[in-house]
Specification:
This protein is mostly helical. It has 5 helices and no strands. It is found in: Endoplasmic reticulum membrane.
Amino acid sequence: MATQDKRSDTSDFPEIINTDNLQSNMKSIYYSRTFLSIIGGVIAGIWGFTGFTGFVFYFVVMLAASFGLAAKAKFSADSYFDSWNRVLLDGILGGLMSFVLFWTFAYDIVHIF
């Protein structure tokens, strides 16, 4: 009867995640989403979006950001993050206030003044 060497079988052990790299990657996602929220708000204001269409535009921008971040990670989020939710959903509502601020600011400058 042959015995298996347990040290060579790594399927039973969880993947080790470097917390410093994970925090750095999460900061990158946060900064990217904040920057795109500001740029998206300015664009929505210049284009004259009002009401519901402005918020739809925000979520379209965030969807594009999620796709871009996933593409940057080569669609292998497990290598850079602990779950796909970190890439796709984390921080989406965090940039909403910045979006609304710059949306109304740009709209006022272009269409009211």
